[in-house]
């Protein structure tokens, strides 16, 4: 049998397995779902699966005993918040009857429906949900490897990197140059580099006013751009400069030893250097065969099932979710949609097309918040914006509106982290 | 004509009742990202569980039309049809 015929038969078998719903319940014991990754996507999905159908046996695989949230970690960097306010344990998740397995998933066998962990343990599943978040593409920006991150922190996975960047800012003399480099799309938290620039600018303005902040960008446009730029002109004139791609902002290499950013036109040596690096789906996605050549994971917009491997679902930052940004709100929204779909598929039912929402706040200053919102639905095989809905905060608004959005941002963080971890 | 209208209203009512009993209807699962599910949590954003169905429908329609000012709800409500709003409202009204 030639390869193409064999592949065709294999594809046919996979298709029929996907099309004929066989309730996992018919096999006796409750169906097993393994969720890999305990962030906003994975922890939400594990809990939502138990709520959707308590007969489902859910195992959550997570390497860390504590989750450190990225939203609001820019406030930690700017000294406005402490890291423990970002940290959550899995006690309440476990109390929902979810088995928490401390470990790192290293391999997936889609045929045997088994996940292998770094310690050799093997977990079998009826459905697998991968929520691995992001990995840094080390070396994609020449000079930016793992050792370089000790000199030029990325702080794009919250925790020790967040504190390192904060300590560097605190240790910097007044009058120093801070440089942030922002990557090309797509990446985790599209407005994140600009919120970070804003809050670092706030720190410099209040604590080290002779200092300067430069943002070197691989793009000419970014999320909430007009709102950020208007606020920067108002709050941080002469302090914060954004250099877009078309003005030579694209960083082509870095030198960690001297904290230097190299562009096509210049070299910028920083006192404090923050590289927001190129990213990809967390590495288990590649090992499971659910990441495509972009490094991210194509999914079905109704069920979040991988377009590359049957019975494996991908949610959160790792997924290619069409118009939905890689945000904590989107991850939480996708996780609940995916959990409902997985429960229905396990029961032999067909999930209905969902609608999803994203809301994403950014702080430009402690009392100055802006937001973007969107509503999404499956359209031509992708999650697309619902026409006429969504958008950003009004460009003309009194400071009271900005202050109200800063309060709502904080309320959002408390609410979503309570839903996921409390 | 009157019968047809009654049949349409009947269908919406049945759809809403079905939605209230099982899976959250399209869009409803996303709300708890901002609207607390736990009554113990204090937030400027109201809890939706157990809220009167007509009140949710009215709020969504007013946000959608611009009659009621919102921070983000004006932008979000524009993404939902009358039928979807009715189903979401029925589902939350039936929550404890």
Any overview of this molecule?
- Chain A is of the alpha/beta class and 422 residues long.
- Chain A has ten helices and 25 strands.
- In chain A, the strands form eight sheets. A five-stranded parallel β-sheet of chain A has the order 5-2-1-9-20, covered by helices on one side.
- Chain B is built from four helices and no strands.
- With 96 residues, chain B is mainly α.
- Chain B is 52% helix and 0% strand.
- The chains are: A alpha/beta (422), B mainly alpha (96).
Overall pLDDT level of chain A:
94
Which stretches of chain B of 5+ consecutive residues score pLDDT under 50? Answer: 1-21
Q: Determine Rg of chain B (CA atoms, Å).
A: 14 Å
Q: Helical proportion of chain B?
A: 40-55%
Number of strands of chain A: 25
Query: What is the tally of helical segments of chain B?
Result: 4
Radius of gyration of chain A: 22 Å
**Element-by-element helix/strand order of chain B:** HHHH
Strand content of chain A: 25-35%
The largest sheet of chain A, given as strand count, sense and whether it forms a barrel, is:
5 strands, parallel
Largest sheet of chain A, order of strands side by side? 5-2-1-9-20
* Global geometry of chain B: globular
Structural class of chain B: mainly alpha
Mean of pLDDT of chain B: 84
Short description:
The complex is a heterodimer of chains A (422) and B (96). Chain A is an alpha/beta fold. Chain A has ten helices and 25 strands.
């Amino acid at each position: 049998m030639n390869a193409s015929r064999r592949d065709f038969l294999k594809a046919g078998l996979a298709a029929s397995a996907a099309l004929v719903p066989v309730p996992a319940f018919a096999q006796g014991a409750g169906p097993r779902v393994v969720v890999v990754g305990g962030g906003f996507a994975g922890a939400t999905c594990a809990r939502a699966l138990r709520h959707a159908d308590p007969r489902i046996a859910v195992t959550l695989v997570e390497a860390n005993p504590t989750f450190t949230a990225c939203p609001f970690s820019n406030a930690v960097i700017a000294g406005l918040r402490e890291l423990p306010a970002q940290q959550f344990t899995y006690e309440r998740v476990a109390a929902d009857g979810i088995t928490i397995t401390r470990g790192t998933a290293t391999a997936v066998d889609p045929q045997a429906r088994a996940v292998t962990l770094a310690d050799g343990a093997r977990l079998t599943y009826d459905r697998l949900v991968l929520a691995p978040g992001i990995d840094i593409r080390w070396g994609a920006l020449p000079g930016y490897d793992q050792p370089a991150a000790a000199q030029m922190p990325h702080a794009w996975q919250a925790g020790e990197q967040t504190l390192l960047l904060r300590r560097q800012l605190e240790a910097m003399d007044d009058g120093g140059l801070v440089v942030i480099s922002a990557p090309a799309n797509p990446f985790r938290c599209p407005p994140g580099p600009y919120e970070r620039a804003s809050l670092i600018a706030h720190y410099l303005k209040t604590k080290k006013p002779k200092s300067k902040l430069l943002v070197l960008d691989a793009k000419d446009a970014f999320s909430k751009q007009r709102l950020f730029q208007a606020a920067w002109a108002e709050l941080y004139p002469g302090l914060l400069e954004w250099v877009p791609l078309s003005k030579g902002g694209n960083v082509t290499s870095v030198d960690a030893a001297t904290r230097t950013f190299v562009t096509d036109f210049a070299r910028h040596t920083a006192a404090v250097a923050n590289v927001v690096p190129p990213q990809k789906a967390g590495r288990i996605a590649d090992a499971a065969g659910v990441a495509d050549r972009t490094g991210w994971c194509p999914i079905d917009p109704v069920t979040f099932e991988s377009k590359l491997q049957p019975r494996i679902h991908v949610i959160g930052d790792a997924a290619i979710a069409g118009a939905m940004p890689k945000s904590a709100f989107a991850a939480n929204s996708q996780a609940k949609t995916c959990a409902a779909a997985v429960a229905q598929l396990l029961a032999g039912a067909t999930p209905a097309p969902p609608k999803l929402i994203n809301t994403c706040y950014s702080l430009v200053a402690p009392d100055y918040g802006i937001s973007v919102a969107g509503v999404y639905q499956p359209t031509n095989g992708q999650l697309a914006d619902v026409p006429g809905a969504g958008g950003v905060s009004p460009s003309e608004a009194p400071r009271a509106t900005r202050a109200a959005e800063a309060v709502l941002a904080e309320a959002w963080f408390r609410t979503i982290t309570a839903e996921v971890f409390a | 004509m009157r019968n047809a209208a009654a049949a349409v209203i009947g269908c919406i009512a049945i759809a809403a009742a079905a939605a209230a009993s099982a899976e959250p209807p399209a869009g409803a699962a996303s709300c708890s990202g901002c609207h607390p599910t736990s009554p113990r949590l204090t937030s400027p954003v109201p809890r939706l569980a157990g809220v009167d169905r007509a009140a949710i429908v009215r709020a969504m329609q007013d946000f959608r039309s611009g009659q009621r000012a919102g921070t983000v709800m004006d932008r979000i409500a524009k993404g939902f049809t009358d039928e979807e709003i009715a189903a979401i409202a029925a589902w939350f009204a039936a929550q404890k």
